[in-house]
Amino acid sequence: MDELPIIEARGLKRTFKARGAKGKLIEAVxxxxxxVRPGEIVGFLGPNGAGKTTTLKMLCTLLEPTGGxxxxxxxxxxxxxxxxxxxxxxxxxxxxxxxxxxxxxxxISHAQFYGIDRTTARTRGQNxxxxxxLADVWDRPCGSxxxxxxxxxxxxxxxxxxxxxxxxxxxxxxxxPQSRANLWTHIRKLRDDFGTTVFLTTHYMDEAxxxxxxxxxxxxxxxxxxxxxxELKQRVSGDAITLTLRTAADAEAAKAIAAGLPGADMPIVDxxxxxxxxxxxxxxxxxxxxxxxxxxxxxxxxxxxxPTLDDVFLTLTGRSLRD
Amino acid sequence: MGFFRDTWIxxxxxxxxxxxxxxxxxxxxxxxxxxxxxxxxxxxxxxNAPGFPAGDAWQIFVPGLLVQLGIFGGLxxxxxxxxxxxxxxxxxxxxTPANRTALIAGRALRDVVVIVTQAIVLCGxxxxxxxxxxxxxxxxxxxxxxxxxxxxxxxSNAIGIATKSEDALAPLVNALALPILLLSGILLPMxxxxxxxxxxxxxxxxxxxxxxxxxxxxxELMTPTVGLGLLLAVVLVLLGAWIGNRVFVQQTK
Lengths: 323, 253
Ligand SMILES: Nc1ncnc2c1ncn2[C@@H]1O[C@H](COP(=O)(O)OP(=O)(O)OP(=O)(O)O)[C@@H](O)[C@H]1O
Ligand SMILES: [Mg+2]
What we know:
The complex is a heterodimer of chains A (about 325) and B (about 250).
Chain A: E1 7-17, E2 25-36, E3 41-45, H1 52-59, E4 67-72, E5 75-76, H2 81-87, E6 88-91, H3 103-112, H4 118-131, H5 147-159, E7 165-169, H6 177-194, E8 197-202, H7 205-211, E9 214-219, E10 222-227, H8 229-235, E11 239-245, H9 248-259, E12 268-270, E13 273-278, H10 281-294, E14 299-305, H11 309-317
Parallel strand pairs in A: 3-8, 3-9, 6-7, 7-8
Antiparallel strand pairs in A: 1-2, 1-4, 4-5, 9-10, 11-13, 11-14, 12-13
Chain B: H1 2-19, H2 22-46, H3 57-75, H4 78-86, H5 89-94, H6 100-129, H7 135-163, H8 166-182, H9 195-202, H10 205-217, H11 224-250
């Protein structure tokens, strides 16, 4: 690809002075590098406090980095912050509307900051609302909307000026499964129809998995892994295979056989159960089974499980994302 | 120009939200009207006491109420901006290309409009109690009140955004308001005070602003007292705007 990256960050860093504790510094983001190509949907996955929002705020000019450089949408973050602001959309984790204001008023007033006239703002706003199943909220006070409706209104606000690059901080928090699926469809459509680049943070693994072309995993202020969902999962020890045998003796024998399989790790025996990982369970299983039959061992149960992003996170950090 | 357009966008949004809550505007008016009806008559009886400055009781009392309106009307707006910050509105505006100063100036302009409207209602009510002032003096007086309101709106918004906490803003507002109130002769003219108190109050700019407004209401215009008051008010607005702008720019640091 010869297209210029739409986000290019080098050594981006942010430390906060902790309030109260004198002189103590919080290293929220510890010098991250990232490159995002136009038209990509990039998921930024990490647990609470990992530094997702801080990174996003830096890329959106809301927070000055304490170190490093970045170009966003073709403009330098430090020297041309206004240029960045003109070209990006940002949906904050904290919302964007006053409870007393009517939804339509907030949309129009927000659009005016980008030099969009009222009529255009109204048309675009209503189309976007309709696309996100919010057709009838135009005249309603934002405070009267449900949490999920208000979240979708935030997204409409962030898209009103049709930015080429949009940052979504935990876009689907508070949405029911159906609205989430609808939002994912809409985000994909944004990219497919308009070539919009989407950079979103999430701590939902299924969201990162289903929506992103590429995932960056952030933990404790540093990017610990990066790749397509499939690539990341392959980096984990592979598919999990669980064999159930008749007896513990059979299990010990099966362990020896399984250990000899190409691409398998050291099996673990637990009573009459053997657990192991193989790069590809679908190709490893037939070989394993025929070896077992040759040795006169009968397996009474076989279970395989594809790795999840949680397994990836667990392998990389020793902790589960769900903690 | 971007600044004026953005100020207008922020102002019209804020104004619309204020108009939707007329109760707050009314509550803001209640205080001066209560002073007018319950405290004013007391002063009328005192106006002949030795040490009372020239002019009739209403010409002395109403300027004090107007200055009070300007100060308090502006001082409490910081609570509103904290609520806006909490709902994400401030960050949402800061990621747009909008001029930073406009984000606070548009809000201050809304506060000025509310305060000047309240001041007009107050003067109208005072007319029925017996206030008589030339119309031009009233107009210059309203400008003065508007300037004060702007200055305090800037400062209160700045403190609100800097602290992001009602619990921090409330004591700060009180700490500012009380000495200003007591040392400016808003309720009783400082000419009644003992010598040392007069000297202390000379260092309070708001005393000179109240004096200027009283002079205006007596029919003075081109006098040093009026000039000093107006000058101080303009300086306060510029100072407030500078602080407000700094705090907003500082937000991204
Ligand atoms: N203004 C601030 N002052 C001090 N510390 C901060 C500030 N903002 C963030 N932090 C700290 O920086 C770290 C990263 O926070 P950040 O909000 O980026 O996390 P996150 O990945 O977005 O988490 P979440 O999933 O909870 O939204 C946290 O330890 C947080 O406490
Ligand atoms: Mg966050």
